[in-house]
Amino acid sequence: MKLVITMSRRFGTGASIIANELSVRLGIPVYDKASIEHKLDEHEYESEAEAIRRLAESPCIILGRCASNILKDRMNVLNIYVCADKEDRIRRIMKLESLSYEEAKEKLERTDEQRAAYYHEHTGRTWGDVNDYHMILDTTELGVENCANILMQYFEKLEYI
Fold first, then answer.
1. Are 7 and 77 in contact (CB under 8 A)?
2. pLDDT category of residue 46 using cuts at 50, 70 and 90
3. What is the C-alpha separation between 124 and 61, in angstroms, rounded?
4. Structure pTM?
5. Other beta carbons within 10 Å of 142
6. C-alpha to C-alpha distance for 76 and 55, rounded to whole angstroms
7. Mean pLDDT value of segment 78-104
8. 20 to 30 A from 122, CA-CA: which of 73, 111, 114, 148?
9. Residues 106-111: what's their mean pLDDT?
10. Architecture of domain 4-157 in CATH?
11. By three-state DSSP, how is residue 112 classified?
12. What is the C-alpha separation between 26 and 21, in angstroms, rounded?
């Protein structure tokens, strides 16, 4: 498999759970903000975008960081956007981080706002625009636990794996 998967997501959708499950099943690494920043510290990359391009030379999953835009001209990249209903996301954040409803709602809104601003600042585009992704997964409708299965079936059907 030579596939690189980028996964953009709304906060609280469970995308990191999906990415980690795919990582185990496919035997490829997941890179998120922290791991990409660590790679920047270890190596002499000029930018985060350069680090992402280098990481994408091998099969991997990249969470966020505008990777879908950075790698848009590559043929072996599948760009996925993960979304969910706001109430579902709030409940998930409440449970994961032991927050009250209001605290979780505020954190969700603040994080989504920051991600949208980051994406626009680095790409000039609107974060979450369906035209920028090959696939949209709604974890409220599909269930977080089902999304990795759906993606694995898709990869098998297209003979990516």
1. no
2. confident
3. 23
4. 0.94
5. 15
6. 13
7. 97
8. 148
9. 97
10. 3-Layer(aba) Sandwich (3.40)
11. helix
12. 9
